[in-house]
Amino acid sequence: MERRLFIRLLGGGVVTAATTGTLSGCSADLPAEALTAWQGPGQPPAAGTDPRHWMLAHAILAPHSHNLQSWLVDLRQPGSITLYCDRSRLLPETDPFSRQMMMSQGTFLELLNLAARQVGLRADIQLFPQGEFGPTHIDQRPTALIRLSPDASIRPDPLFQQVFKRRTNREAYEAREPAVDALAAIAASAVVPNTVTGFVGSAQATQRDQHRQIAMDAWRIELETPRTILESYQYLRIGPAEINQHRDGISINKPFVRAVTALGLFDRTKAPAPGDSNIAAQIKEFNAKLATTPAFFWFTTQGNSRSTQVLAGRAYARAQLAASAQGLSMHPLQQALQEYPEQAGTYAAIHQLVGAPLPTHTVQMWARLGHAPVVPPAPRRGVAAHVMPVSASAG
Length: 395
Ligand SMILES: Cc1cc2nc3c(=O)[nH]c(=O)nc-3n(C[C@H](O)[C@H](O)[C@H](O)COP(=O)(O)O)c2cc1C
Hints:
Layout: H1 2-10, H2 52-59, E1 71-74, E2 80-85, H3 99-118, E3 121-127, E4 144-150, H4 180-189, E5 195-200, H5 205-224, H6 226-234, E6 236-238, H7 239-246, E7 250-252, H8 255-262, H9 277-292, E8 295-302, H10 306-325, E9 329-332, H11 344-353, E10 361-370
Parallel strand pairs: 6-7
Antiparallel strand pairs: 1-2, 2-4, 3-4, 5-8, 8-10, 9-10
Helix pairs in contact: 2-3, 3-10, 4-10, 5-9, 5-11
Bound molecules: flavin mononucleotide (FMN).
């Protein structure tokens, strides 16, 4: 495919297929500097020293929608961490009510909690200590206040061992299905009030086909809706210089894409024209991955308050870590769960399919699940990028 496109490029044709396979995954080796956070902070902090940076070095490895890492922490109060959502890092088109942002605050809190447990600290997490955000907008108030205190009864959680191994895996999954025991372990890892976890595999072949079809439809809609694809383009990091500079977003280091970008032939400020062959190729590639995905995982909540969304994020982090412990990969499929008008049909369809009646219930996470080749970690910005300056106020 790439060779064919390259020949077209040499032939002077308009390059329309520069990014085949990018938004659906596939990043060749990433520059090591962007991955230093994955080397970890080393030994646990010595007794009597401030453990918070060590804990944060784990928390920043949490999954976050579009890898935006919108975590800001205020460390001015000794023994506490106040967490804010960085409102300069939102996705207003694809996540108009910031539901995924709240989930991504939850994933961070879960990893922070695992790190605290590892060093015998109790993390008392108070969500929205100054009140919850309303349903459509988030404001400058904190999402959580975490108070740390030594507690001899606190035990390490085995999921901590997966923090450095967990990956979002967008590759094609093997046909073999996850073992029943593995599914049980994932479900058991994420027990949250008012949450229902579900799986579908070959035993429910008709339903699984419906999952595949909804995911295909939703992906196509996202790629063909100009403002939503442009939002994704905004967070594409192409080539080592961009990847190292930002250390966030979706990284692409494939030589062909880099070459086309360097030649100015991939304009990320313009949405592809209807019928664009690159988009058609991406849809085809993603459809092939969906068609062979052996299982899907989801969980739904009753209610959709801000606290529920954060707790859903905590549950997702645990589920993904548990999957990792079972040698399984996950790949979220949020497109159909997104609350912009063009997805209304797929949104309703996935809610109906998994038995989450609207408007009382919400599908918070939906993901491909299976065995996949190992993939490299995604960049992180490092702890210092998340610590608010002493003089700062959030917002
Ligand atoms: C709430 C939430 C929604 C996500 N939605 C998607 C998605 O729709 N598609 C996708 O490929 N990845 C999705 N992800 C995964 C992130 O893109 C991923 O966590 C991020 O790129 C960092 O990579 P890592 O998880 O391998 O560390 C989501 C993650 C979270 C927490």
